[in-house]
Amino acid sequence: MSIIKRAAAVAVSVSLFAGAGVLTATGASAATVYGCQRYQGASQQIGAYWGHFATYGYYDGNSAVPTSGAFSSAAVEAQCALKSLGYSVTADGYYGPKTQSAVADFQSHHVLKVDGFVGPSTWPALRFYAADQSAGCGPTVVAAGASRKSAVAAVPMGC
User: Fold this and answer.
1) Does a structural domain hold residue 64?
2) Which of 1, 73, 91, 123 is most solvent-facing, going by the fewest CB within 10 Å?
């Protein structure tokens, strides 16, 4: 390939790259906001909680810890649960300072380690309190280490 052809190829590559950079910067300014439709399953026990647990269709596990400042489906899930609890957060999937502050507030009100991150101890509590527990079978929090049998005994008949 001649030097002129190489220079032309480099110039085209640079202009395409620069153009893509402009498009990316423009598109990145408007964050996507996700809908928060709540789903909940049958009563079950997860950790110290016995009852219904909310999910929103973005992440259904209990172990992912959303990273500060990064996008993740687990962050969308946590933001949806927080919104259903009345916190003023946007379900955009970015785990920023507002989401971290809301999680820390939630943790402080539910006897959890306050670190501002949703992890294995906070997911069950967040999903439990975000669920609709009003189906005539109110929420039951079971003492740590208690058996499922004692949790079932604490739930009213018919639940």
Assistant:
1) yes
2) 1
Say if residue 48 is in the same domain as residue 85: yes
For residue 78, tell me if it sits in a domain.
yes
Percentage of the chain with pLDDT > 70? 64
* Encoded tokens for 9: 């190829």
Domains contained in the chain, number: 2
Q: Is 159 within the bounds of a domain?
A: no
As given in the structure block, the two tokens for residue 62 are: 């209990």
Question: pLDDT (tens digit, 9 = 90+) per residue, 43-95?
Answer: 888 888 888 899 999 999 999 999 988 899 999 999 999 999 999 999 999 99
92: CB partners within 8 A, 6+ apart: 31, 32, 33, 34, 76, 79
Question: At CA 13, angle to CA 7 and CA 15, rounded to 5?
Answer: 100
**Positions of E strands within the chain:** 39-40, 44-46, 49-51, 54-55, 140-141
Regarding whether 88 and 58 lie in a shared domain, the answer is yes
Q: What is the CA radius of gyration of the chain?
A: 23
Instruction: Output the pTM of the full model.
Output: 0.68
Q: Which tokens go with 88?
A: 């003023």
